[in-house]
Amino acid sequence: MQTAPSTSHMTAVRIAGVDMVADLSGVLFWEEERLLVVSDLHLEKGSSFAERGVLLPPYDTAATLARLGAAIVRHNPGKVIALGDSFHDRTAHQRLSGPDRESLCALQARRDWIWISGNHDPALPREIGGTVCDEVAIGPLVFRHEPTGAFGEIAGHLHPKARVSARGRSIERPCFASDGERAVMPAFGSYTGGLNIRDAAFAAIFRTLAFTAHVLGDRRVHAIAAGRCY
Fold first, then answer.
1. What span, in angstroms and rounded, lies between the C-alpha atoms of 115 and 133?
2. In b/e form, how buried is each residue of 109-130, taking b as 16+ CB within 10 angstroms?
3. Is the model's pTM score more than 0.85?
4. What 3-state DSSP class applies to 16?
5. What is the number of structural domains in the chain?
6. Which domain holds residue 149?
7. 184: left (phi over 0), alpha (psi -120 to 50) or beta
8. Residue 163 belongs to what H/E stretch?
9. Does the residue 220 lie in any domain?
10. Is 3 domain-assigned?
């Protein structure tokens, strides 16, 4: 991912020769295709934890959908690809509240919507709308859930985060991880954790530290060399 001039909340990037925009919210937008890409929504993670006795505020799905809705309004895509683990478990869609179900339907209205199957949601039901696929290829890019390191791949699954030192303190934030030939997207869900980009899982994808963490800051996306992170 190579950076170009940015606006206040988005930065132009290039992946496998394709110009896209990395949005501060954590989505990618391919203007030429009017395609918005989002990863790892993990809808209903809060209710999943509640079923196991771990009580979290039950507002994660509403918050996630509201943030996604704002990104959709900002870019007005004709197509959306959700890169897997959109739902936190196999029955999460059954636990959607009425208002959250209506919000999800509204987001899908008047645009094509593709759900990529993930390891948390391998068998998505038809009732959620859209089209379910294992992966999707458009031009030189392939969209899938789990990264393999292939050229032109845009994937999720690993929830990349970068830790940097700033003004004498340590800061850890979600990020896009890319070497310009492939990319791993940050998790979008409100209750999602993250995996440090210095973990061996990223070494298996990028082989070296010659990749960039496009870190989601408070006001803009910061491009930081992976070797500067720890």
1. 6
2. eebebbbbbbebbeebeeebeb
3. yes
4. coil
5. 1
6. 10-228
7. beta
8. strand 160-166
9. yes
10. no
Q: Is residue 1 part of a domain?
A: no
Joined tokens for residue 96? 């959607």
Residue among 96, 43, 106, 121 at smallest CA distance from 72? 106
Q: Establish how many alpha carbons lie within 13 A of residue 18's alpha carbon, considering only the half-sphere containing its beta carbon.
A: 26
Question: For residues 160 and 194, is the Cβ–Cβ distance under 8 A?
Answer: yes
Asked whether 217 and 176 are in contact (CB, 8 A), the reply is no
Residue 12's nearest CA partner among 156, 214, 186, 205 is 214
Other CB atoms closer than 10 Å to residue 53's CB: what's the count?
6
Structure tokens at 174: 């979600």
Tell me the CATH number at 190. Answer: 3.60.21
The DSSP symbol for 123 reads S
Would you say residue 56 lies in a domain?
yes
pLDDT (tens place) for every residue of the chain, 230 residues total: 444 434 568 898 999 999 999 999 999 999 999 999 999 999 999 887 777 777 777 789 999 999 999 999 999 999 999 999 999 999 999 999 999 999 999 999 999 999 999 999 999 988 899 999 999 999 999 999 999 999 999 999 999 999 998 778 899 999 999 999 999 999 999 989 899 999 999 999 999 999 999 999 999 999 999 999 99
